[in-house]
Design goal:
two-stranded parallel sheet, mainly alpha, Rossmann fold, about 200 residues
Length: about 200
């Protein structure tokens, strides 16, 4: 954004972590740009395109959270359906999943461009439920590393709302949001579910 004269600090971006990236860019462009509507749309699209290129390049080598794949595999072997939701568009998230060969684990993979509105709206969770064939929010546990993840889970009314500290959110940030549990890492999910029966 800075290369296109939209100045945003890390502190200003912080509350937007977990949100749809197109919406984040558009928010800051609308706040700061003096362009007309068509100009702001074009500028937002240019910034987003540059963002996608940089993120796709960066994620070619980023390793998964330690223990994440083992946890996912254990949950699948225990009979749990697993879905993923992300504030990234499909053009960013699918290359990551293909590189990791993780598609096989998920009953649903929902990106921010699959729904009308991203977090804190509950639509990605509902779309994941629909795709996976889950009919009741009482059967769903949402897991995330940002305040917006927990807000979306609360807005969806799901049974479990788990904050994980293996991402960007701190214990203090996640504790302020509705939650049922906060765990150190996504790798701890099988143990948490084992305790909950």
């Amino acid at each position: 954004m800075g290369k296109r004269e939209i100045t945003v600090s890390a502190a200003e971006i912080g509350p937007w972590r977990g949100a749809a990236k197109r919406a984040v860019i558009r928010h800051f462009v609308d706040l700061q740009s003096k362009l007309n509507e068509a100009g702001r749309q074009k500028l937002s699209a240019e910034i987003y395109r540059a963002f996608v290129e940089q993120v796709n390049e960066a994620y070619k080598t980023v390793p998964p959270v330690e223990g994440a794949e083992e946890a996912i595999r254990k949950l699948r072997e225990s009979g749990y359906l697993i879905a993923t939701t992300t504030g990234f568009d499909r053009e960013i998230v699918m290359p990551i999943f293909k590189r990791l060969a993780w598609e096989k684990y998920f009953a649903a993979m929902v990106a921010s461009d699959d729904v009308a509105e991203g977090r804190p709206a509950p639509y990605m969770l509902f779309h994941a439920m629909e795709t996976a064939g889950v009919k009741s929010v009482a059967e769903v546990m949402a897991v995330g590393d940002t305040p917006l993840d927990l807000q979306a889970a609360s807005n969806a009314g799901v049974r479990g709302m788990v904050g994980v500290l293996s991402g960007v959110g701190t214990r203090e940030q996640l504790s302020r949001e509705p939650h049922t549990d906060i765990i150190q890492s996504v790798a701890d999910l099988p143990a948490l579910l084992g305790r909950k029966g």
